[in-house]
Each structure stands twice: as structure tokens, then as C-alpha cells.
Amino acid sequence: LTARVDSLSSQLASGALRDKDARAQAERDVAELRLRLTEGDFRAGDRFFYTIVVDNVISDSASVRDDYMVSISTLPDVSVKGVLASELTSHLSAHVARYLKNATVRTSLLTRVSVVGTVLRPGVYHVAPNRTVGELVMLAGGPIQRTNMREFEVVRRGAVVMSKKMSRAALQAGQTIEQADIRSGDEIRVPATRQFRISWAQAVQILFVLTSLTLAFLQFIQFYYRE
Q1: Which of 127, 159, 169, 204 is deepest in the core (most CB within 10 A)?
Q2: Contact status, residue 203 vs residue 210, Cβ threshold 8 Å
Q3: Residue 119, beta-bridge partner list
Q4: What pLDDT, on the 0 to 100 scale, is given for residue 48?
Q5: What is the 3-class SS of the chain, one letter each residue?
Q6: CA 37/CA 181 separation, integer angstroms
Q7: What is the pLDDT of residues 54-99, one digit of tens each?
Q8: Residue 11 · residue 53 · CB < 8 Å
Q9: β-sheet bridge partners, residue 108
Q10: Number of other CB atoms surrounding residue 186 within 10 Å
């Protein structure tokens, strides 16, 4: 990540990125990468599973609190601020090694995603990154009637990072959450399918107009032939 920041920063400083959109994207990437390097990948509410193998096997889940602290079994709390997802296992292993000898630590991350819109059970879900995008939507109860599941959007910090077109491709390919680059904190918005619906009053009005136009047309034809 540091090498990527250095590369992008160098391109921005040298003016190598002359295209306005490419330059704006590079600036956003640099800001996001620097934030990850400083704050890490974990935010309050994130969850993961851990297993500690020592004299016995200890398995449980842990949640990140507002202060970035995490409770691991009966051991003292540990902070995950500044820790990247790829560093979690080694970070916890170093923490556990202070209190338990010859302990082996394994971790399994969960992705925290909000599913909103026209689904049966909107809410926040913690799922394994190897679950497919379609499975995630179905965990929320699936789309309700008159919903087009193939046209959802993924929003990150208020910006759309997966368009409706991209979501259709992800569903058709059976992409996993990780492959689709859906991250913790992202929001999946499932819109309702637009349908043409009219009330009885509107139907009567439309019928009246059509009838009036038909009569007017017939009267015109009669007048034309008489003339």
C-alpha cells in the first residue's frame, strides 16, 4: 500500500496524469490508501472469528468497539487501530503470545454490509467474504414483490462504487463479496422495479378520453363523406 501511495503521488506531482478524471481518481485513491495505512481496515461494529489452539481449543467471535479495542477470550483487550485485514492474524498472534506459550491463532474475517431498500429484512449483516453477492441479498430475506434484484447499487461513504450495470454482471458471474470488492461499511441498495400502475379513477378518465376521440373521429368521417 505504501508503494502504491508513493507511485500515485509521484505521478500526480510530475503531471503524468493529464486526464482530469484519471487525476481525480488518483487523488481519491491516495487519500483512501493513506487513511487505511493510518487507521487500518477495522471500524466499530466489524466482527471476526478467532481460534486459539494451545492446551485446548478456544473459538469465539469478536466485535470491534468504538475505541478500536477487541476482547479476546479472557485475555486483556487488544487494539486493532492501524491494523490491516491481512495483518490481523499476526497481530493477534503477537498479542496472545504475551500471555500463552506455544499458542496458535487463526482468524476469519466477516464483512459488515447494510442491505436496504425493497428487501424483506433490511439491516446490517456480517458475512464471510467468500459468500456470493446473491447470497447476501437473500440473507436479507430476498427482494420483495415488484423488486428488480439485478439492478442494485453498492454505496461507499455516499458514493456509488458499483453501478446497476456492474451489479448485474456480478450476479451473473456469481461473484463473491471479496471478488466484487464489497467492503465492511458498504451499503447495498435494492430499488423497486418501476411499474405502470393506474387507479380506477384514472382508468375511467382514460376510457372517457378514448371514447370521446373515437366518436369525434367517426363524426369527422361522416362529415367528410357528406361533403
Answers
A1: 127
A2: no
A3: 143
A4: 93
A5: CHHHHHHHHHHHHHCCCCCHHHHHHHHHHHHHHHHHHHHCCCCCCCEEEEEEECCCEEEEEEECCCCCEECCCCCCCEECCCCCHHHHHHHHHHHHHCCCCCCEEEEEECEEEEEEECECCCEEEEECCCCEHHHHHHHCCCECCCECHHHCEEEECCEEEECHHHHHHHHHHCCECCCCCCCCCCEEEECECCCCCCCHHHHHHHHHHHHHHHHHHHHHHHHHHHC
A6: 18
A7: 888 999 999 999 999 999 989 999 999 999 989 999 999 999 999 9
A8: no
A9: 49
A10: 20
143, amino acid identity = P
* Grid cell 370521446 in the structure block, residue: 212
- Specify whether the CB–CB gap between 79 and 148 falls below 8 A: no
Instruction: Provide the β-strand partners of residue 25.
Output: none
Residue 110: closest CA among 46, 154, 155: 46
Of 100, 115, 98, 122, residue with least CA distance to 153: 115
Residues of the chain with pLDDT under 70: 145-150, 193-200
Residue with cell 467468500: 130
Q: Residue 219: what pLDDT?
A: 81
CA–CA separation, 40 and 69 (whole Å):
13
Unique residue bearing C-alpha cell 368521417: 221
C-alpha cell at 184: 465492511
Taken in order 96, 33, 156, 167, the sign of the CA dihedral is negative
pTM listed for this prediction: 0.67
HSE-up of 23 (CA within 13 Å, CB side)? 9
Cα dist. 76→69, 73, 91, 99 in Å?
Answer: 10, 8, 14, 9
Structure-block grid coordinates of residue 91: 497481530
